[in-house]
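Archive entry. Fields below.
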Amino acid sequence: FLKWGCAFSPERRNKRKRQRYVEKNGRCNVQHGNMRETYRYLTDIFTTLVDLNWRCSLFVFVMAYAVTWLFFGAIWYLIAYCRGDLDHLEDETWTPCVDNVNGFISAFLFSIETETTIGYGYRVITDQCPVGTMLLLLQAILGSMVNAFMVGCMFVKISQPNKRAETLVFSRNAVISLRDDRLCLMFRVGDLRSSHIVGANMRAKLIKSKQTQEGEFIPLDQTDISLGFETGDDRLFLVSPLVISHEIDSRSAFWDMSQAQLEKEDFEIVVILEGMVEATGMTCQARSSYLAEEVLWGHRFSPMMSLAEGFFDVDYGAFHHTFEVDTPSCSARELSLAAARLDAHLYWSISSRLDEERWEGTNAFQGKIWGFCFPPPPISKEM
Amino acid sequence: MSALRRKFGEDYQVVNTNRGAAFAAPVKKKRQRFVDKNGRCNVQHGNLGGETSRYISDLFTTLVDLKWRWNLLIFILTYTVAWLVMASMWWIIAYIRGDLNQGHDQSYTPCVANVYNFPSAFLFFIETEATIGYGYRYITEKCPEGIILFLFQSLLGSIVDAFLIGCMFIKMSQPKKRAETLMFSQDAVISQRDGKLCLMFRVGNLRNSHMVSAQIRCKLIKSRQTPEGEFLPLDQCELDVGFGTGADQLFLVSPLTICHEINSKSPFFDLSQRSLRSEQFEIVVILEGIVETTGMTCQARTSYTEDEVLWGHRFLPVMSLEEGFFRVDYSQFHNTFEVPTPAYSVKEHDEKASLPSPLVTPTLGEGRGRPDRVFSADGLDAADERPVGARLPSKLQRMSTSGKDELQRKVLKLSSHQAEKASSTGDLPLKLQRLGSAPAQGDAEDRLQLRALRVDVGPMTQSTGDLQHHPPPSLHCPTPGLAASGRPENSLPAKLRRMNADR
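PREDICTED_STRUCTURE:
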């Protein structure tokens, strides 16, 4: 098996560079183009704002405040102008709308003081100005609304649960080796923090383009890889790094894949870990992907946990390490057939007769058994 | 295009019913949708009686559920009318105390300095409530009733402020707005995939941020009457889009085609192209997931009525590979194109497959019979719970399960030379399968079928030529699973075996 591995590695290097669907860090290489219905992004303005990167977010934040201040400042100035306050600056008997507003700058300052509710007191609104009272009311209401919105956006942006995914790590390679006489595809996942991921569950999808019988070409078709959905094994208790294993059985997409075929195959496995951040209760999602060349046949993950004084010690230096083990290089299907044949010999002494025939099906096998009046052996492996 | 024509045709009929049945399609009355295309549900709750107090008890949800215009109106009303009422209380205090007549008397200490008429009282109130506090108008300590009102106003102001700001924020950050950037295709299509008839629709995510734990569900809304005579209006029934296997949990980054396989467990088991025109149902699709940024769950809905389900169409591809990323072209998102699809239902197919005669008769001229074979052979794989002996012998079963992959690969190699000529590729696998799927009923039929094989078109013979000259498989090859159990001397099964064992 080791010889086979060496023989095939030069071919592996010659494979053309394949475009990944999902990067190793979880970012997806998909761009949305030619979108005609852009009104949708505006209707969902909140998510649009929160999704922006930090530079744009801060720019929008600053702009929102600056624009409202300037707008109201201009209106206060306009009121002062229309009333004639600016012509009566030195007049003691004249009651202006707002005391001590004598130009655009002071109108702007008054607008800021009002909207941010500082209210120093040097510039005060008088009671001789009903228009001013209305404007004050309007500015107070609008100010609190804009404030609420901006502060909310900032808060949501800061506490985004998807940042938690930064401290969830996946192994660099996936491996295929034997576990309990079955071939399993495995990868490792770990949580770098001491706080837990509540309700963690693991999913995997196989991304492989296919063509149906009718000629329909489905690019990047997604099929589910079972990580224990029926038994509940996909629900993790993630405190120390876990090795997630997908048992390659007859329903798996890798049933017919041998080591030689793995070299030539072209697929991508996307792994998704979802769970709630313990502190905030918000669900986060961590993703990674493995290309066909990142799946190592016949390797096993190095152990990381050791028992120290009063606790278990995890060594993250060994997180990505694998070592080679003896693994048959045939596919899982061939392995199950070979194992069944091996089982048969335990119940049979006429093995020579069997070697001549082609083993082609359960019924053929059972037919022979009944023909020789022996009880059929328990068929544990599928044919 | 045909769907559009059909839709206009129906509308035309609705308007000109007195013209009579001038069109081939049956006259359908304009029907009321349960769910709109944008997900809004056409249900109004009436005659609640004494239950309206519940809405007041849950005031927060009631406020958040209101439309934006009502929310803003309540906001503004609270801040103006309530303020006017409260301000008048300050004015009443000033009036009772007799501050109003004092004006600018320096020696007199009013309750609130510089408040001597209603406008100034109102201004004082705003300044206090909005915590601006300019300082020109301020409360003095000579006024116990004023102090009490002042305390009350501060507390109430904070509470009302918090409530309204909270409502505003929740209303702005509603996760249901995320549903605006989740798109569903305009139509659903029915066509074949791997020999199985499937109902498909497309779903897309317009943003780069993900939907965590995205899950898709499908409900069929169709009124029916039970055998006991109970009429169930708008009865909801579940459509399986992968619930059992976990395939309904989506990884939604680029547009996905969701596929509902029509088999014996599906409510569309006896739906054919003809019956589609006369039926009346609605498929409601629900996509639920958590908004990545806020961690709140959102739900996007849409529905497909029977005139929005296109028989024999397929979605145009939207993904293309660019330099360093995949590009999605949303202008093609809703577009479909026609493909040849058999017009009858899956039930009729299965019934035809169970009859022995169609398998024996030569099907040279029969265009209809061919898709039959593809269905029957594949239908066996899907329904393992069916009794083995019911349709075809077990040999056939095993042959189709294992040999199908090799056959498919050969088909793919052949079909890749021809562009999407679905009709020809549909024929090819069928001919190969027909040979493989015929039970060894007698040499006459076998010879007939072999003759039929030789008559076939060029690429066909090329492929079968490849198959026939292949040596028997070695021990370590995955075996085709064809059992020549009882009859090793029969030449045809051996030949078939060799054909199917080709890699």
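CURATOR_NOTE: Chain B touches chain A through 104 residues (CB under 8 Å).
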